[in-house]
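RECORD TYPE: protein structure
NAME: UDP-glucose/GDP-mannose dehydrogenase
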Amino acid sequence: MSFSTPPAVGIIGLGYVGLPTALALLESGLTVIGLDVDAARLDAIREHRVDLVPDDHRRLRVHTGDGPGADRFVLTTDPTALRAAETVLICVPTPVDDHLVPDLRALSGACATAAAQAVPGQTLVLTSTSYVGTTRDLLLGPLAERGLRVPEDLSVAYAPERIDPGSTEHTQSTTPRVVGGVSPECTRRAADVLRRTGAEVHEVLSPEAAEMTKLLENTFRAVNIALANEFATICGELGLEALEVIQAAATKPYGFMPFFPGPGVGGHCIPCDPHYLLWQLREKRVASPLIDTAMTAIATRPHAVVQRARDVLADRGVPLRAARVLVVGVAYKPGVADLRESPSLEIMAALGESGAEVAYTDPLIPSVSVGGRWLRSEPEPGERDWDLVLVHCVHPRQDLSWIGDDVPVLDTTYRLQDFKHRVVV
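PREDICTED:
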């Protein structure tokens, strides 16, 4: 097969990973075929109604509409368009369900699409986080059913995404990529494409090694966040400021990495990825008590926040069932308009189920569904009286000066020091 010139890269899934990846590859001079099952998402991309860092917004303007590079960015819902690509990257979400069991529907569908449209000579690269063995199960199997052999007919590799949404410090171009192919040639071909994003590439010997690398990364973070939350509780019992202690420990130049407590963990990485490992280990009847305990602690953290809110209100003689509670910031992290797995949703739902009148303010998220009803962000929160202000997430340059000295502030960020009636979890 003859591929288009300049070489085309197909990307399945244009979410928080796929879209920035597409923009980086476009910037390098490649043609990108962006495939997404959601036509509304493609319209949002064309109209620039997407959550990106400023530099990626600049790239998007260049490669859409009347931009000079718009002819190299094809947005489509037609999977047959992938046949014109030299390389296909699979960038779809891998969430867990309400029972913390991996939900592989999007990933299985995307891999099936890639395999069904694959042509000899292509390189298929899976980037979504999943269990060890996913690449072989979901790509090599379907390809073999079509009579396509790897690596003889085409290349297959795994290269976990390392996107930090909203971050201008840890960019795609400065964050190394790990790549493991089914063969050395598969690894080389995948690495050659990923280097076009500006990233350094670290090659490992197999897709399984690369898959386990991503699981280790986020399990490491999960365990240490659970530890930070536990230390924060201990510090509170001993009358100490957790942030002060962590920052002091972080002055040690070796053997310590700072992690910080909070209201829980959001996004589709830390609260989800370790469960793919736990799910696989349970199937093999392999115990992992440390990881199990950490993930349980993370899952129950929002409930600890609600209980602390209940206690703070009770100390002021206000029952939770009659309280007016304002949540500040509902995004899962500062600087993003992203609600994926945000602890705020569970916190607000639990407060509402207890009878509290719950409202929120967030400059980046105009509305949110909680407990089956829609709430709109309070534009002027200082104009209402609140029994409790629960600070969940503070965006850069967000003004909190409207919070009065008479209202209790439950600071789940542990970073606010200037409020008279501040408490932590």
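COMMENT: Residues 8-205 form a domain with the Rossmann fold fold (CATH 3.40.50.720).
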